Structure formats: C-alpha cells, structure tokens
Amino acid sequence: MCGRELRWARLLLTTMPQAARKQDGDDSPPLVCVHGLSGSSRWWTPVAALLKCNGPVVLLDVPRWLRPSQTPAWLAGRIEELGAPVDVAGHSLGALTSVRLAALRPELVRRLVLVSPPGVGPTRSRMAYAWPLARTMLRARPSFLLRLTLDGLRAGPLNLARGGLHVASADVTAELPEVTTPTLLVWGARDEVVPIEEASTWLERMPDVRLIVIPDAGHVPMVESPVELAEAIGGFLEERFDESRDDQGM
C-alpha cells in the first residue's frame, strides 16, 4: 500500500499488451478487476487507486450485450490480449465469471480474488436475490446511488433481469475443486445479498483458499470499505509474490 489517501482518478489500462508493460519497466502482472450485476469499472476505482503500488490495475467494463454465460470466454480473450497469466479480482456476478474462468482456463489466472461470490448457496428466485440487493443499495451513500442508477440505466432492464436470474440460479459447487489457483475470498460481515455463511462451502471445496472478513462492509466492500478491501487484496498479492520468489530460491 502507498498510503491511505483515496484518489478517484480512473485507472484504465485495458489494452496495454505485456510487451508494452515490460518496456515501461514493470514486470508485475496486472490485476484485472471485474464488476458485478448493474455495475461498471467505476465501482473499483477507489480500490484501484490504493493498489497502484502493487502493480498495474486493469478495470474492465463487461459489454452490456453479453449474456452472463458468455462472459468467461470474453474475459479470457481480454486476458490473452494483456498477456497471461494475470491476477483477477471479481465482485458478485464478476466473481462468478472469474471463478468459472479459473476452472476452465487455469493457465490465464495466477491469483484469484473473489469478493462476495454467489454460486454455492440454495437456488433462489430472481426476486429473492434482488430484494436484499435493493435494500443494500438503498443504504448506500448518495454519490454511489447516483452511480448505480446511471450504470443500471446503461445496462437496461433486460440485462438486469437476465443477470439477476443467472446469479440466483448459479451453482459452481462442482467446479470449485478444479480451481487450483491461489484464491482469496473477501466477504462483508453485513452482506445480506450473499450471506457470509456460504463462505464455508468455498473454504471446504477449494484446494488453495483463504478468507478475509471486513466487519463494517455489506455486499459492495469496494464502495463501503475501500481501504480495508485494498489492504486485503494488497496483502494477498504480496504474500503470494514472496512465496513465488522463495520457491525459486530468490
């Protein structure tokens, strides 16, 4: 971490190939951040600003026309453009996309961060998922509510409904043992959308996983507790990097 100042400058390095990064003298793989349902890359901006000393950060905007089932393949294509492997952080629906990518294309993902991931709890109706999400958003700061409203309008009702149904019915339990990528789970203790009790399934089934709980956060810790989330992710990136150097005798 470079300090606790929160700078809202947007970090967009989405098309920088690996060769260009090396020419700039930075061999660190980028951290690719994927937003959740009705979100945008702007949700990750405060965390990205705090992680700038850990290496390049890529904030992706998932195309609105993509079906949720198509997003892992789309994400794989973007990572191949960047120069795999990379570190990947996904939030909610973005976490669901990220873990499926890690299961299908493990060579693309060096480290995985899953923030409030759905996909292992009981199947829910779309409204059973949407109502806790609505309550969470209504308690958010006015500035974030404005951002959420604009992002939701851009997504459109069809995409929101389709994404909500996908999240509510998703089940990746059988895929988790296949994810050998070192993984960090981050959960808000006050998450009403994806209850923290579901973390136990991820911990039981994934081969290399650890959990950090942010006490004062709900379902959107990158907005509710950006400093704590950045510290959790930064510590995880440094931990794995140190272990890699040790394994190589460096």
Question: What does the model show?
Answer:
This protein is α/β, with parallel strands linked by helices and 250 residues long. The chain has one domain: Alpha/Beta hydrolase fold, catalytic domain (Rossmann fold, 3-Layer(aba) Sandwich), CATH 3.40.50.1820. Helices cover 44% and strands 13% of the residues. It contains 9 helices and 6 strands; from the N terminus they run αβαβαβαβααβαβαα. The protein has helices at residues 18-23, 45-50, 71-82, 93-104, 126-138, 142-169, 199-205, 221-224, 226-247; strands at 31-34, 57-60, 86-91, 109-115, 183-188, 209-214. A 6-stranded parallel beta sheet has the order 2-1-3-4-5-6, with helices on both faces. Strand 5 (183-188), helix 7 (199-205) and strand 6 (209-214) form a beta-alpha-beta unit. Helix 3 crosses helix 4 and helix 5 (126-138) runs antiparallel to helix 6 (142-169). The longest helix has 28 residues, at 142-169. The radius of gyration is 17 Å and the shape is globular. It starts with 17 loop residues before the first helix and ends with a helix.
